[in-house]
Amino acid sequence: MTARILHTFEQFSIIMTEHITGMTMMDTIDQALIALLRQNARYTVADLAQKLQVSRGTVRNRMLKLEDEGVITGYSVQLRPNSQNRPITAWMSIAIEGNATRQAVASLLGEPCVVALHDTNGRWDLLAELQAQTLDELGQALERIRLIKHINNSETSIHLKSYK
Question: Fewest CB within 10 A of the end CB: N or C in the chain?
Answer without folding.
Answer: C
